[in-house]
Amino acid sequence: MVFLALVGSFFALPFVYAIMQSLKPMEEIFIFPPRFFVRNPTSENFYLLSQYAGNTWVPFTRYLFNSLFVTSTATFLQVVICSMCAFILAKGKIAGKKIIYAIITLTLLFSYEVTAVPSYVVMAGMQLVNSYFALILPAIAVPLGLFLMKQYIDASVPDALLEAAKMDGAGVVRTFWAIVMPIVKPAWMTLALFSFRDLWSIMPSGTIFSEELKTLPYVMSTISAGGIARAGSAMAASVIMMIPPIIIYWITQSNVMETMSSAGIKD
């Protein structure tokens, strides 16, 4: 227990350091030798951050709305689509499902940089560049989410239960929503956490050009790029960006632990 506490404290150091830096006045940030803890805490960095954000061409609330809308919508759709596809590939009786699953799993090897150009070509061909769809659609079908859900369904949903539901007259849709989804709640809660974490920090690159459609990380990175004079405000921005994912993890942590201990049981 002592060892685990030490390891946990070590991993918490970056977050604690970010908070300490965001509360330091300018003279403490650049003091030498540097200090870990703050001696004269101040909220000036957060105040200056609000001033910088308020002076942008687009209202700060617009960036916040864009991030919340894109993150919540894409997370919901990703959980639903990945769960439905995983259910069919795990329990459905369709020809070639093993080959389909192998191809999907193979795409886990490709990074974002590899698929950036094809994604842009597809978005441009569908005339979705410079719209919310350019951020939401690529985030809906994620191979990692499908892999996670399929592994958990294979391990947690017995075929006998599905056969019993079928004998009671439940169709595929009802079986999925009323039986499968409650059973695999830890898995889709974990997927929601991962999705929210990744989408919350997403920055438009090549598909969004309108300032009204850009997200909160964009304006935060713009403020942080202001040089050493904005070092405190940059750290305050980092702390603000970390808060929502931490809240989501705090809500879903028990489900995440259960999923991590169960999803890899069965191939």
In short:
70% of the residues lie in helices and 0% in strands. The chain is an all-alpha fold.
How would you sum up this structure, described in words?
Helix content is 70%, strand content 0%. The chain is mainly alpha-helical. The radius of gyration is 22 Å and the shape is globular. The C terminus is likely disordered.
**Helical content, roughly?**
over 70%
Order of helices and strands: HHHHHHHHHHHHH
The computed structural class is: mainly alpha
How far from one another are the termini?
A: 32 Å
Overall 3D form: globular
Total DSSP helices: 13
* Sequence stretches where pLDDT stays below 50 over 5 or more residues: 263-267
How many strand units?
Answer: 0
Give the rounded overall mean pLDDT: 82
| Rg, alpha carbons | 22 Å
Characterize the largest beta sheet: strand count, sense, and whether it forms a barrel. Answer: none
Q: How much strand content do the residues show? A: under 5%
